[in-house]
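Dear support,

I submitted the protein below through the web form. The confirmation email said the job was done, but the results page showed an empty box. After a refresh the structure appeared. I'm attaching both so you can tell me whether what I see now is the final result or a partial one.
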Amino acid sequence: MASALPHSLSLADARRIAYQRNWDLLASQANVDQALALELVSREFPNPTFSYTTGKISSDASPNGTRRGNSLWNRSYDSVFAVNQLFEIGGKRGLRQSSASHGRLAASASLQDARRILDLGVTKAYLAAVLAEANVDILSHSAASLRQQAKIAGARLHAGDISQSDKAQIEIAAEQLELNAEAAKSTALTARIALEVLLGEKSPKGTWQASDRLESLATELCAGPETTAQLRPDVLAAEANLRKAEADHGLQKAMRIPDPTALLQYEHNPPDTANTIGIGLSFPLPLWNSNKGNIKAAAAAQALAADQLAKVKAQAAGEVAAARAALDEATARRHRYANTIAPKSAETVKIVQYAYQKGGAALVDLLQAQRTDNDIRVATAQAMADKASAAATLANVLNLHHP
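What the results page shows now:
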């Protein structure tokens, strides 16, 4: 828990560290440990009860000694040793064990679901940090390009080709892009800190750098073949909770059957009365309480668990449908930006810059082309991040494991 993050962090490293150190995941593991303990308790038998009583002790001055002697065992006391053992009947023990077993399965499935949700959270946080860094590079590059144009404008100003106002407008646009780049750096730092919180870092500072590039993540992150999808852990947890509720309901019904307690005792009463052995059986009489309230509450809990299972299944199906639609849209958008719009914009900027340097284009044309190209490059980066995020989301809601 105290180890520092590496300076260069990949998405695979971030996932691995999150699985080891995330606070919510550790809490879910503690829930599994508690469920395991309860399952052990359900398999234990009730302990017998031992009792010892001594009676017929004289309260006056008369001696309690007998012809056998005056020791504690030989006095005329009535000593009774008894052992009581409760026996569960009516299937209570099996139902209790079934409830605990399904509780353990639900806790284990909830742990896996917490890991699934954490995986997507880490992936999106990592993508946000990488996208923010890409925006810093784009804005810095655009600012540097305008600074270069400002130098060229200075030469043209000395030559009398442009006015001082034209040169000042280029410098203002460059400064504005530089300020935007600084704001993007702050956004990137915030994104890195947000990821460190998910990784269980005690003192997040955001000093690490992403080793994965946005272009590679947009290509590598994919949903994969859906035929390998497994039943989601949240559905498994809801099913286990329903089975547990059913066992609890059956247990409350079985509680209407009284559990007997068997008695075995030994009585010692010297000197004339022989030692005796006694047996007995006791059980509560269900006259005033037939456990109706607990049965009704357990039935309501069972119905609620059934509704929750149906809800989780519907949510899972809805998430898959929405993720598929988002991936299709993001993939198409990324393809158009990367293969059509961005190349055209870059070529247009080059043409306008050349024309402006030769006096064939107005300043407004240069600034507009530069601004449009900057927006398109930012949008292209956003499209790549959206495609990677949508692919990761679809894989996640399908419960597909990352390579």
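Response: this is the final, complete result; the empty box was a page-load delay. The chain has a mean pLDDT of 88.
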